[in-house]
Structures are given as C-alpha cells and as structure tokens.
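Re: that chain you flagged

S.,

Sorry for the slow reply, it's been a week of failed gels. I finally had a moment to sit down with the sequence you sent. For the record, here it is as I used it:
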Amino acid sequence: MKFKIVLALALYMISTLVQAEQLEGLLGWADRQLYSFAVDGVVQNVKAHSGDKVKQGMEMARLDERPYAYQVERCQAQIDQASPTLFDAKVDLDQADELFERSVLSEIELQRIQSRYKSLEAQQAINKAECKLHKWRRQQTRLIAREDGYVLRSNLQSGLVISGENRSAVFVETVSASEASANLKLSYEQALRLRTASELTVEVQQTHFAAKLLSLSLQADSEGKYHAVLVFKYRQPVVAGQPLKVVF
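Prediction finished late last night. Pasting the structure tokens below so you have them in one place:
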C-alpha cells in the first residue's frame, strides 16, 4: 500500500514537470525591411502603397532615370571615340618595339611612344570606370522588392525630389508575407524554460504553427520581464497586436 502511494506521488510529480506551459503573447510582423533610393532624383512613379502585397523582383517605385541615361550615353560615346586612337597607339607601340629590337629606333623615341600609349590606356580605363558608375546609378533609380511581402508604410509620392538631405527619410517599409512573429514578456523562470524548449508552438485563432526562437533579451525590463520573439510560417496578413498563445 505504501509503495502504491509513493508510486502515485512520483507519477503526479512527473506529469506536472512534463506538462506543457502556455503563455500569452502578441502577434507581430517579421523581417521588416526598409527600401530607400541610393541616388538623387525626382520620383517618377510609385507602384507600391501601404497595405499592398509585393512580389520578389517587383518594381515598387522609380526615379526619373533620364539624367543617368544621358550620362551613360555620354561615357559610352567617349569610350567609342577613344577606342580607335588607343588601337592605333597599340599598333605604333608594337612596331616601335620591333624597330627598337632591330636598333632602328632610339630608346628615347620608344619611351615617348610607350608613354603616349599608357596615357591613352589609362584614360580609357577611367572612361570605363566612370561608365560602370553611371550604369550603377541608373540601376539605383528603381526600388526592387527583394522578397515577397506587404508594404507596411511608404512616404514616397510622384514628383518628390530625393537628395542627400532627405534620402534616408524617404522610404518604403515592407514586412514578410510568409512569416510572422510572436512577442512575449516572460519571468526569469519562463525565459529559462523557453530557451531550452525542444518544441515551440504558436496558436493564432485556434490554428497551430511550429515556431522557433529568434531572440531573447539578456536583461529584464523595468517590470522585471524578459522579452522574447518567436518566428513562424504565416501567410495571412498580420494584424499586429492580435493576442496569441505559445505552448512549449
């Protein structure tokens, strides 16, 4: 009889230890990203607005690219114009090397021809580098979505002038279209158990999702609580602040 009582007590203690813990949290966005223009210009078109869903590779906004297109055309014209002269200078240099080897051409004259070719070659390298830079700037006139998402907010509008003074303050902010976050406030004991939990499940409106721990604060806030963020697959529009449950 005594053995049965001890066994029942032990089983009760084990069931209490392995009982899943349930915490309340809040639904939030995941993978927030800011997009802003890296070059100056005038906003020509805005295709993504707050609340819109964007696909990876979609153009969300663009600047008037004509100033950069003109620069590309100009630098390409400089390259094309200089190419024949550089080619002729290389032919002259090859001939000069041959004549110098035959002692027909003096070293001073050879050095003059070498110097001219090197000067033209260096200028052509500068032309090509400038052309690459102008092409890169032209590409930066478009804001392209790096992944599927929803536009959380945007303050871009057609006709807006983008410059170094406001460039970082004008942007499109997106959040993931395939993930969401669960935001929790925990006691110290709960934080320890959460950190070592082998399985995490988020329940949103009676639907369960497998989750993983993204971050856990090392210090408590003014209320003595530790903040944790979990992420999980979630393909519905996120209603930030919606209550949820976390089971582990």
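What I noticed first: The helical segments are 2-18, 66-101, 107-139, 188-196.

Talk soon,
D.
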